[in-house]
Amino acid sequence: MLMRRIPSLFIAGTLSLLAAASVIGAGNGPDSDTAPEKSVPATQSSEPNPFAGNPAAAAAGRQLFLQTGCYNCHGADAKGGGIAPDLTASKLDAQQMFKTIHDGRTGTLMPSWGKQLDAEQIWKIVTYLRSVKHDG
Ligand code: HEC
Q1: What's the pTM?
Q2: What mean pLDDT, rounded, does the chain reach?
Q3: Which of 20, 58, 68, 72 is the most buried (most CB within 10 A)?
Q4: Which atom number of ligand 1 is nearest to the Cα of residue 83?
Q5: Taking the alpha carbons of 76, 122, 7, 32 in that order, is the dihedral positive or negative?
């Protein structure tokens, strides 16, 4: 797809500029070629859900949803509890859900769960939420 190529061309261009800059600035210190690593995202939210459509993972995700306390705000069936939105009506895709659960939403009551839950647990919760979502 054309849209996907543009950013990688842009990144390649940026990297070669950085490479050129570090050749020019050679001898400035050992840190000069480490900067590009900062562009690696902290969360792996762009990877596909490894449990997509897996009913056992969805059941495990439901357990995690209850054990972790998501239901306190989102309701036992994830349909909203007055404090937080109905997740069965969410417009987010799986990757956006992962990121929201992992990072939380600054400035709202939605906490970040990246320290309590590992990626596998978050994907299981996402699988559960996808399984109860209205538009699949
Ligand atoms: C303290 C209350 C609270 C808890 C606990 C909580 N949430 Fe949330 N959550 C919220 C609020 C409030 C929002 C809406 C944030 C906003 O306004 O953008 C939200 C938003 C979300 C969204 C984005 C929905 C959308 O369509 O934009 C997801 C997904 C989500 N929560 C999942 C979870 C999961 C999974 C857990 C448990 C691991 C959890 N939440 C625990 C309060 C909470």
Answers
A1: 0.75
A2: 79
A3: 58
A4: 12
A5: positive
Which among 78, 75, 81, 73 is positioned nearest to 126, based on CA atoms? Answer: 78
Residue 134's pLDDT is what?
84
Ligand 1: atom nearest CA of 72 is 5
Using CB atoms within 10 A of its CB, is residue 123 exposed (0-12), middle (13-18) or buried (19+)? buried
- Within the chain, residue ranges assigned H as helices are 2-24, 55-68, 70-74, 94-103, 119-132
Instruction: Read off the pLDDT of residues 4-25 as tens digits, 9 standing for 90 and up.
Output: 554 454 445 444 444 444 444 4
Query: What digits encode the pLDDT tens for the residues 32-84?
Result: 454 444 444 445 567 899 999 999 999 999 999 999 999 999 999 999 988 99
With a 6 Å cutoff on the Cβ, whether 83 touches ligand 1 is: yes
Give the whole-angstrom CA distance, residue 90 versus residue 14. 36
How remote is the CA of residue 40 from the centroid of ligand 1, in Å?
25
Evaluate: CB of 108 within 6 angstroms of ligand 1. yes
Domains of the chain, by residue range, sit at 45-136
Q: What CATH number labels 45-136?
A: 1.10.760.10
